[in-house]
Amino acid sequence: MQAWAPPVVSTTIPDRLGAAPELMLYDARTGQVEKTDPGDEARLYVCGITPYDATHVGHAATYVAFDLAIRAWREAGHRVRYVQNVTDVDDPLLERARATGVDWADLAGRETRLFGEDMAALSVIPPDVFAGAVESIPLIVDLILELQAKGAVYDVDGDLYFSVTSDPLFGEVSRLTRDEMLPLFADNGGDPDRPGKRDPLDCVVWQRARDGEPAWDTVLGPGRPGWHVECSAIALEHLGGAFDLQGGGSDLAFPHHEMTAGEVQVARPGEAFARAYAHAGMVGYEGHKMSKSRGNLVLVSRLRAGGVDPRAIRLTLLAQHYRNDWDWADDLPGAGQARLRRWTEAVRRGGPDATDTVNDVRAALADDLDAPRALAAVDAWANGQGRTVDGSAELVTAVVEASLGIALPLVAEDTPRS
Ligand code: 5CA
Ligand code: ZN
Prior knowledge:
418 residues, alpha/beta, Rossmann fold, four-stranded antiparallel beta sheet, 40% helix, 14% strand, globular, binds 5'-O-(N-(L-cysteinyl)-sulfamoyl)adenosine, binds zinc ion
């Protein structure tokens, strides 16, 4: 699939300031903040959308969080290879298409395009590989065949299941007990009570064709892929094994990230799936997790259509630490807009020396993506008194753009440059 266009970068940080510190991130598997240790190229996979409803601010918060990680790696001197999937065929998408009387593929295409527009507006760096499940079916089938060859797949009335007990490391990503896993599995697309399964936690990797549903003719018989194996296959194909970071919202820790890791660990024994797992907190609205099924959505596209500057939306998301759960409130973008105005005025006016500001912003982001602390460092500069130092506004503009993804014009936007 074609991803959205990258943000245009208009400023650079002078070399004399050196590279940013190496990124430290909280790893779900160890329960600790750990130094990431990528080679020249950091390899990242972030679970993408299921495109049946437009981007809400919860999705946006998750993608902005991993965008900060990409920027931190780049500032520390790494190249980044970034892969993101699109779950463009799955139960909830098909249900929505049926309920609204639209073609499932048209719905997926429309919502994926809208997501790309929202991401571009929010200055989110696009993935290098943006892979739909449908276009990845050959890879997915190959991985299922590898699992079959390992004896880790069995048939229940024509549907193929992955046997979780074939993975000796199963449970290490989410660190949950089986009693904790079972209700989460049932609530997130799993079918623990289906008769004929060997273990209630086994997940479907290939669903045989059913009336009124799309199906693909493959060596596994006509059908479509299960959800988890989609991400296993796409990540393995485009990043290889033991890539640096698997990301997504905390709702994906179990079963999704546990299952994707398990499938790869069984297909390629001895090779970890990802070296670390990071999860963004859940954004709620009016007291509940924002979700398409509940319908309590604040859509990025609707905020934009209502005249909110996308940079103010991004600043609103950055004002929260990515690991926290938090509630969106309708007055938050106003505070983001006010901060954007203060920063814009400050860079036009100029301010005190900004070397510490650059170092503070970079250090805050390297420390488990502490964006609120980074914003506070820029606030302190913008409120700073004292002698204006030549070049300080350019420096702040550069770090705010490179590390935080907010473009601040150095001259008034409505004044033509001469
Ligand atoms: N297609 C799968 C991942 S393979 C999926 O979960 N799609 S999604 O559209 O439901 O979510 C897309 C991303 O947004 C996931 O990383 C998910 O964890 C994250 N997400 C969903 N809801 C929220 C929320 N309320 N707050 C923060 N992140 C969220
Ligand atoms: Zn995924």
